[in-house]
Amino acid sequence: MPISRVTKLYAVEDAKIFPLLSDPEGGTPSYGVGIDVPGIKALEISGDVEVKELRGDNGLLDSDSAISNVTVAWPHAKLSLDVLAALMTSDVTDSGTTPNQKTKWQMKKGAKPLPFKIEAKTPTSGGDIVGGDVHFRLLKCVMSSFPGLGFAEEDYKTPENEARCVPLISNGEWIDVEINETATPIATAATP
Q1: Per-residue confidence (pLDDT) for residue 192, from 0 to 100
Q2: Are 165 and 71 within 8 A, CB to CB?
Q3: 175: Cβ–Cβ under 8 A, 6 or more apart, which residues?
Q4: pTM higher than 0.70 for the full model?
Q5: Which of 179, 173, 51 is nearest to 122 (CA)?
Q6: Which of 10, 52, 171, 178 is placed for a possible disulfide with 135 were both Cys, Cβ 3.0 to 4.6 Å?
Q7: Coil, helix or strand for 143?
Q8: Distance between CA 181 and CA 131 in Å, rounded?
Protein backbone atom coordinates (compact mmCIF):
# COMPACT_ATOMS: atom_id res chain seq x y z
CA MET A 1 0.00 0.00 0.00
CA PRO A 2 1.44 3.42 -0.91
CA ILE A 3 2.09 6.02 1.79
CA SER A 4 -0.50 8.71 2.46
CA ARG A 5 -0.61 11.74 0.19
CA VAL A 6 -1.81 13.85 3.13
CA THR A 7 0.48 15.21 5.85
CA LYS A 8 0.91 17.89 8.46
CA LEU A 9 3.77 20.36 7.99
CA TYR A 10 5.66 21.10 11.18
CA ALA A 11 8.81 23.20 11.31
CA VAL A 12 11.70 23.63 8.87
CA GLU A 13 15.15 22.27 9.70
CA ASP A 14 17.27 22.70 6.58
CA ALA A 15 17.40 24.61 3.31
CA LYS A 16 19.91 24.85 0.49
CA ILE A 17 20.14 26.77 -2.75
CA PHE A 18 21.73 25.29 -5.87
CA PRO A 19 22.98 27.57 -8.67
CA LEU A 20 21.27 26.67 -11.96
CA LEU A 21 24.10 26.05 -14.43
CA SER A 22 22.11 25.07 -17.52
CA ASP A 23 18.50 24.62 -18.58
CA PRO A 24 18.56 23.49 -22.25
CA GLU A 25 15.25 23.09 -24.06
CA GLY A 26 14.46 19.39 -24.33
CA GLY A 27 17.50 18.50 -22.22
CA THR A 28 18.25 18.06 -18.54
CA PRO A 29 18.87 20.94 -16.15
CA SER A 30 22.14 20.99 -14.23
CA TYR A 31 22.85 22.58 -10.86
CA GLY A 32 25.94 23.51 -8.89
CA VAL A 33 26.77 22.30 -5.40
CA GLY A 34 24.18 23.10 -2.71
CA ILE A 35 24.84 26.07 -0.44
CA ASP A 36 23.42 25.93 3.08
CA VAL A 37 20.96 28.67 4.06
CA PRO A 38 22.10 29.12 7.68
CA GLY A 39 19.41 29.24 10.34
CA ILE A 40 16.43 28.81 8.01
CA LYS A 41 13.32 30.18 9.73
CA ALA A 42 10.60 29.60 7.12
CA LEU A 43 9.92 28.76 3.49
CA GLU A 44 6.88 30.67 2.31
CA ILE A 45 5.49 29.87 -1.13
CA SER A 46 2.72 31.97 -2.63
CA GLY A 47 1.30 32.70 -6.03
CA ASP A 48 -1.19 34.65 -8.08
CA VAL A 49 -3.98 33.39 -10.28
CA GLU A 50 -5.12 35.61 -13.15
CA VAL A 51 -8.83 35.27 -13.89
CA LYS A 52 -10.38 36.20 -17.24
CA GLU A 53 -14.12 36.52 -17.71
CA LEU A 54 -16.06 36.26 -20.94
CA ARG A 55 -19.03 38.57 -20.82
CA GLY A 56 -21.81 39.04 -23.34
CA ASP A 57 -25.57 39.26 -23.58
CA ASN A 58 -25.42 41.35 -20.40
CA GLY A 59 -24.03 38.47 -18.33
CA LEU A 60 -21.15 36.20 -17.49
CA LEU A 61 -20.73 33.52 -20.17
CA ASP A 62 -17.56 31.83 -19.03
CA SER A 63 -14.49 32.22 -16.87
CA ASP A 64 -10.98 30.81 -17.05
CA SER A 65 -7.85 31.25 -14.98
CA ALA A 66 -4.10 30.69 -15.14
CA ILE A 67 -1.32 30.66 -12.57
CA SER A 68 0.54 33.87 -13.34
CA ASN A 69 3.14 34.13 -10.59
CA VAL A 70 4.80 31.95 -7.94
CA THR A 71 7.09 33.48 -5.33
CA VAL A 72 9.14 32.07 -2.50
CA ALA A 73 10.44 33.90 0.56
CA TRP A 74 12.88 32.54 3.10
CA PRO A 75 14.02 34.45 6.16
CA HIS A 76 17.08 32.98 7.83
CA ALA A 77 18.94 33.66 11.06
CA LYS A 78 22.51 34.17 9.83
CA LEU A 79 24.17 36.06 7.01
CA SER A 80 25.90 33.88 4.40
CA LEU A 81 28.21 35.54 1.88
CA ASP A 82 28.08 32.36 -0.24
CA VAL A 83 24.28 32.59 -0.45
CA LEU A 84 24.57 36.23 -1.57
CA ALA A 85 27.10 35.24 -4.26
CA ALA A 86 24.72 32.53 -5.52
CA LEU A 87 21.78 34.96 -5.71
CA MET A 88 23.50 37.59 -7.87
CA THR A 89 26.68 38.17 -9.81
CA SER A 90 29.13 39.10 -7.06
CA ASP A 91 32.37 37.89 -5.51
CA VAL A 92 33.48 36.50 -2.17
CA THR A 93 37.19 36.70 -1.40
CA ASP A 94 39.23 35.54 1.56
CA SER A 95 42.50 37.20 2.57
CA GLY A 96 45.03 37.59 5.36
CA THR A 97 46.43 35.20 7.92
CA THR A 98 45.52 34.68 11.57
CA PRO A 99 44.89 36.94 13.46
CA ASN A 100 44.11 39.23 10.50
CA GLN A 101 41.94 37.06 8.27
CA LYS A 102 38.92 38.52 6.54
CA THR A 103 36.28 37.49 4.07
CA LYS A 104 34.56 40.02 1.84
CA TRP A 105 31.47 39.97 -0.38
CA GLN A 106 31.45 42.53 -3.19
CA MET A 107 28.66 43.49 -5.55
CA LYS A 108 29.76 45.66 -8.44
CA LYS A 109 28.11 47.77 -11.12
CA GLY A 110 26.16 45.62 -13.55
CA ALA A 111 25.33 42.91 -10.98
CA LYS A 112 22.38 40.76 -12.05
CA PRO A 113 20.23 38.16 -10.31
CA LEU A 114 21.23 34.55 -11.03
CA PRO A 115 18.91 31.53 -11.41
CA PHE A 116 18.89 28.84 -8.71
CA LYS A 117 16.90 26.00 -7.14
CA ILE A 118 15.87 26.11 -3.49
CA GLU A 119 15.03 23.05 -1.41
CA ALA A 120 13.84 22.96 2.20
CA LYS A 121 12.72 20.13 4.48
CA THR A 122 10.95 19.43 7.73
CA PRO A 123 12.73 17.71 10.60
CA THR A 124 12.21 13.96 11.04
CA SER A 125 8.53 13.44 11.87
CA GLY A 126 7.73 17.00 10.70
CA GLY A 127 5.07 15.28 8.60
CA ASP A 128 2.52 12.65 9.61
CA ILE A 129 4.82 9.68 8.99
CA VAL A 130 6.91 8.86 12.05
CA GLY A 131 10.54 8.78 10.92
CA GLY A 132 9.75 10.51 7.63
CA ASP A 133 9.99 14.09 6.39
CA VAL A 134 8.62 16.48 3.76
CA HIS A 135 10.69 18.34 1.13
CA PHE A 136 9.69 21.37 -0.97
CA ARG A 137 11.70 22.18 -4.13
CA LEU A 138 11.33 25.21 -6.37
CA LEU A 139 13.38 24.30 -9.41
CA LYS A 140 14.09 27.65 -11.11
CA CYS A 141 14.02 30.88 -9.14
CA VAL A 142 15.40 34.38 -9.66
CA MET A 143 15.70 37.00 -6.93
CA SER A 144 12.75 39.41 -7.11
CA SER A 145 13.75 41.84 -4.37
CA PHE A 146 17.08 42.78 -2.91
CA PRO A 147 18.00 40.69 0.16
CA GLY A 148 17.09 42.26 3.49
CA LEU A 149 20.54 43.12 4.85
CA GLY A 150 21.82 45.50 7.51
CA PHE A 151 21.55 45.82 11.27
CA ALA A 152 18.81 46.32 13.89
CA GLU A 153 19.03 48.32 17.10
CA GLU A 154 19.35 46.06 20.15
CA ASP A 155 18.10 43.06 18.18
CA TYR A 156 19.21 40.41 15.72
CA LYS A 157 18.86 41.25 12.02
CA THR A 158 17.26 38.42 10.08
CA PRO A 159 18.29 38.35 6.41
CA GLU A 160 15.26 37.88 4.16
CA ASN A 161 15.22 36.79 0.55
CA GLU A 162 12.44 36.65 -2.01
CA ALA A 163 12.43 35.15 -5.49
CA ARG A 164 10.09 34.62 -8.39
CA CYS A 165 9.85 31.05 -9.63
CA VAL A 166 9.24 29.87 -13.19
CA PRO A 167 9.06 26.47 -14.90
CA LEU A 168 12.30 24.99 -16.20
CA ILE A 169 12.75 25.38 -19.97
CA SER A 170 14.21 21.88 -20.23
CA ASN A 171 11.30 19.88 -18.83
CA GLY A 172 8.59 22.28 -17.62
CA GLU A 173 9.02 21.30 -13.95
CA TRP A 174 8.24 24.12 -11.54
CA ILE A 175 7.63 22.98 -7.95
CA ASP A 176 7.67 19.61 -6.29
CA VAL A 177 6.68 18.40 -2.84
CA GLU A 178 7.95 15.03 -1.64
CA ILE A 179 6.70 13.09 1.37
CA ASN A 180 9.33 10.55 2.44
CA GLU A 181 8.59 7.45 4.51
CA THR A 182 12.18 7.62 5.75
CA ALA A 183 13.69 11.05 6.45
CA THR A 184 16.17 12.06 3.76
CA PRO A 185 18.79 14.82 4.01
CA ILE A 186 19.00 17.44 1.28
CA ALA A 187 21.77 16.35 -1.05
CA THR A 188 24.63 18.83 -1.43
CA ALA A 189 25.99 17.37 -4.67
CA ALA A 190 24.86 18.82 -7.97
CA THR A 191 21.80 16.90 -9.15
CA PRO A 192 19.03 17.46 -11.67
Answers
A1: 56
A2: yes
A3: 45, 70, 136, 137, 138, 139, 165
A4: yes
A5: 179
A6: 178
A7: strand
A8: 7
